[in-house]
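Hi F.,

I've been meaning to write this up properly since the lab meeting, where we talked about keeping a consistent format for the predictions we share between groups. The idea is simple: the sequence comes first, exactly as it goes in, then the structure tokens exactly as they come out, then a line or two of notes. No screenshots and no reformatting. I'm using this chain as the first example so we have something concrete to point to.
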Amino acid sequence: MNKKFVIAIDGPAASGKSTTAKQLAIKLKYIYIDTGAMYRACGLCTLLQNISLDDEVALKKMLDKISIKIEYAEKGNRIFLNGENVSERIREADITKLSSQIAVIGMVRRKMVELQRKMGEDGGVIMDGRDIGTIVFPNADFKFFMLADVETRALRRWEEMKNNRKNITLEEIKEELIWRDRNDTTRKISPLLQAEDAIPINNSEMTIKEQVEMIYSVIERG
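Output, unedited:
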């Protein structure tokens, strides 16, 4: 595969898209761009600067100056907000909810899309999110849409979080995912949708390795 493709992987929260995208990027030697982390970093920025999401003037000033960089690391990408490593902070519960709220704001999405397109303009990138194949890169070379039932997704997320949030229950995570699904699919700006030309992959009964191999085989066939 000499050509450097743009690969879009969309899907709901905890559908396995990020883990799959990361491992696929390693296999292809591509750059993995975590778009969800970008919205999380943007949300964190509003907290650090004490900016209300309703304050359009302050929000615009923040976005005009914001710097979000993603650096590859073997143990996971490092996310830098205005020069500071915020990789761990943006995964905390308050930022999780804030990222969904800020993602529906038009000027925020326009800025993030601008940054994402710039990162992917030379190809050789894999992006995962909720609107990569529909909005960010509608002409992506390959598009995939990850699916899994909410029980499977809740269990996956619980396994990820149980060491850091020892008191959280499986039911609480399931309720949060249901809320995220409803919010992501019904928002007016860039809702979660499967692109018409995306290949759906229901991975409820699949391992990450199986998902990666399936997608890789599609790309290899061209």
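Notes:
The domain at 6-221 is CATH 3.40.50.300 (Rossmann fold).
Strands lie at 6-10, 31-34, 68-71, 78-81, 84-85, 125-129, 142-147, 199-202.

If this format works for you, I'll send the rest the same way.

G.
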